[in-house]
Amino acid sequence: MYSVPLFKQIARPYSASNRQPLYVRFFTARQLDQIPQIIKLPQDIRFAMQVVARVLPFRVNQYVIENLIDWDNVPNDPIFKLTFPQPDMLTQEHFDRIASLICKGSDDKQIRTAANEIRAELNPHPAGQQILNVPVMDDRPLKGMQHKYRETVLFFPRRGQTCHTYCTFCFRWAQFIGIDELRFSASKTDDLHRYLAGHKDVTDLLLTGGDPMVMKTSLLKKYIKPLLLPEFEHIQNIRIGTKSLTYWPYRYVSDSDADELLRLMECMVKGGKHVAVMAHYNHWQEMETPVARKAIRRIRDTGAVIRSQSPIVKHINDDPEIWARMWRTQVRLGIIPYYMFIARNTGACHYFELPIAQAYEIYHNAILNVSGLARTVRGPSMSAFPGKIEVQGIAETDNEKVFVLRFIQGRNLDWVQRPFFARFDPEATWLTQLRPAFGAEKFFYEDEFEGLDY
């Protein structure tokens, strides 16, 4: 353990391995140079990390540092790239601007002003999520909630809007930079429950963030335990989006309220609810530690289901064998492979994004190397303005090479499962860069989408 008491410390009752007191310690940008493994890196790499961390959020804990990263493989280790700032995450222009201010000894206010101007250029809220999806009740918008698709309501609990460690590609990075107007969060449980009670067509509640699993069980219980009441019989599925199975599996093993959390899951399942832990796994390395596997077993013992999802991102998992091994491991551990996403067009997307064609080829080659039990995974999928769109294949018909696409979810339910075609473009990385195939001027949904009242 580190002896310098400079980091936020949260007492944990014992280590799963040696039963000694365990503390989770968070390192932020200001403590980068106090991480022993980072001190050993060349000065130019350390400086570059400091520059990037002044613009994009950084936070890591000692479990990730000590258990998930192969420091002999740095800077190429995928979990290192997943959690530590990388120089090319900023464009050269943006990097030079911040680096220059640091080298000149500019004060924090000057650097923060420049960083905020850069952040505004990084599409902090893609797909109109801050404006288009906010539900209304009593003639007022419900801050911290989203209702984009009929069956599913997203809820961002205020105390869950951080994570045990931040992912470098995170499409919700704007939640973590300290700008209130860019943050989703809700603190009123009454609003959530009143809204759900009044919308009988909603079947799924998705708690998201940040990471709801940073909250104490006593807080989580206030949101979901009331859903066992008769007036919420229509709420069949409770989903919890989390990276905690990777970044702090002790949450389910040895945290002071770990057993209480598992009892809550079991209670919800016995009460007739389907509880789904939507686990974000980006690489098979995340599932290799004994405590991670113990956490998986303990969750499954409650009757809850674990489903896995991840974007496909350059530098971390842009290899079909990584995906095939990850899905095979998940099936063996009892996790259901659920989604491969295309990384959203926000933040450091220029560093992480892949062409749609390449993402599909990686998905296709990975699927060929797993059994049918792992072929539950859907993708590659884009969560775009009109809906969630899956790339089903690349085909050639009428002497034209095309992407075969379909809606998995749509702002209009009639769009769901409808196939459509886009001209093949080997460079396109997002839906907005695609054009209709076969001489059409617009995709079938565009006129209606443009006229929808959100």
Brief digest:
This protein has helices spanning 36-39, 43-53, 62-68, 78-83, 92-103, 108-120, 189-197, 217-224, 244-247, 258-270, 290-301, 320-333, 349-352, 356-367, 446-451; strands at 8-12, 22-28, 59-61, 136-137, 140-141, 145-149, 152-155, 204-207, 237-242, 274-280, 305-312, 336-342, 378-383, 387-397, 400-410, 419-423.
Can you characterise this structure?
The chain is α/β, with parallel strands linked by helices. It has a domain at 8-120. 30% of the residues lie in helices and 20% in strands. It contains 15 helices and 16 strands. The protein has helices at 36-39, 43-53, 62-68, 78-83, 92-103, 108-120, 189-197, 217-224, 244-247, 258-270, 290-301, 320-333, 349-352, 356-367, 446-451; strands spanning 8-12, 22-28, 59-61, 136-137, 140-141, 145-149, 152-155, 204-207, 237-242, 274-280, 305-312, 336-342, 378-383, 387-397, 400-410, 419-423. An eleven-stranded mixed β-sheet has the order 6-7-8-9-10-11-12-13-14-15-16. Strands 1-2-3 form a three-stranded antiparallel β-sheet. A hairpin with a 2-residue loop joins strand 14 (387-397) and strand 15 (400-410).
Task: Name the features.
454 residues; 3-stranded antiparallel β-sheet; 15 helices; single chain
Share in helix: 25-40%
Shape: globular
| Rg computed from alpha carbons, rounded to a whole number of angstroms | 22 Å
Characterize the main sheet: 11 strands, mixed
Count the E strands.
16
If helices are DSSP runs of H or I spanning 4 or more residues, what is the number of helices? 15
Characterize the quaternary organization of these chains.
single chain
Uncertain runs are 1-21
How much strand content do the residues show?
A: 15-25%
Cα end-to-end separation: 52 Å
The SS-based structural class is alpha/beta
- The strands making up the biggest β-sheet line up spatially as 6-7-8-9-10-11-12-13-14-15-16
Mean pLDDT: 90
